[in-house]
């Protein structure tokens, strides 16, 4: 949620904004908007789980010895690990502070990502022939997600070119007289619960182009609606099927379904409040709308 690469909906937001609206979202811009939301939700999550729903007594706290042992078992960092970490740090810094680079150099977030990948291929490894990254590693990439992401961009372009975006906007224009804050809350609530039963990638790909037409129909900047889609579709807390991390936690057999649904529902309510307030008050400031 906090960065453009942290979740697919964030990347969909930036890509659709660039392709359909010709507006660039930098890595730093998104972080200025989303990091405060992430921090607040993390704080709420901590107190909600450990102080309210599942109180953790001092006697039940897990000793830190297991973490120290696991760290010790890893041993010192290898040359390859240090080099990979250095490339990652370089790419992260360029993403965050890329806005300081003169426009004449034409360094976009995409160019920075490609630069990082090329460096990993070029820097030689002492463990195997070739670079830190070899072509065989490409087979482990989630190509299905990448194709779905690309398909979503094609869908957004088709919506725009066919006039479907404007048609949806006209259909939804009946809500224009309503206060914007009410519209924001309703959209946030609907998307957040929709993503409980649908992939966040599918939700964002489906709703991001529609949100452009909807924003035009209510005479608001599309970034407000698109930002809601991006953040809300990332928040899936109630069900094991909602997102892979939920499934991983539930598979531990330490959690009953009713516990996950209860905690997830309450966190959803907090997320609706936080996202709605930030989309209404902070998003226009963060993106200079």
Automatic annotation (TrEMBL):
GO terms for cellular component: plasma membrane. It is found in: Membrane. Keywords: Ion transport, Membrane, Sodium, Sodium transport, Symport, Transmembrane, Transmembrane helix, Transport. One of its GO terms (molecular function) is symporter activity. It holds the Pfam family Na_sulph_symp. The chain crosses the membrane at residues 30-49, 83-101, 107-123, 143-159, 179-203, 223-243, 263-283. It is a multi-pass membrane protein. The keyword Lyase does not apply. GO terms for biological process: carboxylic acid transmembrane transport; sodium ion transport. Its main location: membrane. The keyword Transmembrane helix applies. Belongs to the SLC13A/DASS transporter (TC 2.A.47) family. NADC subfamily. PANTHER family: SOLUTE CARRIER FAMILY 13 MEMBER, SOLUTE CARRIER FAMILY 13 MEMBER 2. This is Sodium-dependent dicarboxylate transporter SdcS. It comes from Staphylococcus gallinarum.
């Amino acid at each position: 949620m906090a960065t453009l690469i942290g979740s697919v909906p964030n990347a969909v937001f930036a890509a659709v904004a660039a392709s359909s609206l010709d507006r660039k979202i930098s890595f730093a811009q998104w972080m200025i908007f989303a990091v405060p939301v992430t921090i607040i939700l993390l704080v709420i999550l901590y107190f909600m789980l450990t102080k309210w729903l599942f109180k953790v007594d001092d006697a039940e706290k897990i000793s830190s010895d297991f973490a120290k042992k696991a760290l010790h078992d890893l041993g010192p960092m290898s040359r390859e690990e240090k080099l990979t970490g250095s490339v990652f740090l370089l790419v992260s810094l360029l993403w965050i502070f890329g806005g300081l680079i003169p426009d004449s150099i034409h360094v976009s977030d995409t160019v920075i990502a490609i630069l990082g990948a090329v460096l990993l291929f070029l820097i030689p490894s002492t463990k195997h022939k070739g670079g830190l990254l070899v072509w065989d590693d490409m087979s482990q990439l989630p190509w299905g997600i990448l194709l779905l992401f690309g398909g979503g961009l094609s869908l957004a372009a088709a919506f725009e070119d066919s006039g479907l975006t404007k048609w949806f906007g006209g259909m939804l224009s009946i809500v224009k007289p309503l206060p914007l804050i009410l519209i924001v809350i309703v959209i946030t609530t609907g998307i957040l619960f929709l993503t409980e039963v649908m992939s966040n990638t599918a939700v964002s790909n489906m709703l991001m182009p529609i949100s452009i037409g909807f924003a035009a129909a209510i005479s608001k900047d599309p970034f407000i609606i698109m930002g809601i889609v991006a953040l809300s579709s990332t928040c899936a807390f109630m069900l094991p099927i909602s997102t892979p991390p939920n499934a991983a936690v539930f598979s531990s057999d330490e959690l009953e379904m009713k516990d996950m649904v209860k905690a997830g529902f309450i966190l959803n309510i907090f997320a609706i409040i936080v996202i709605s307030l930030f989309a209404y008050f902070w998003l226009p400031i963060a993106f200079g709308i």
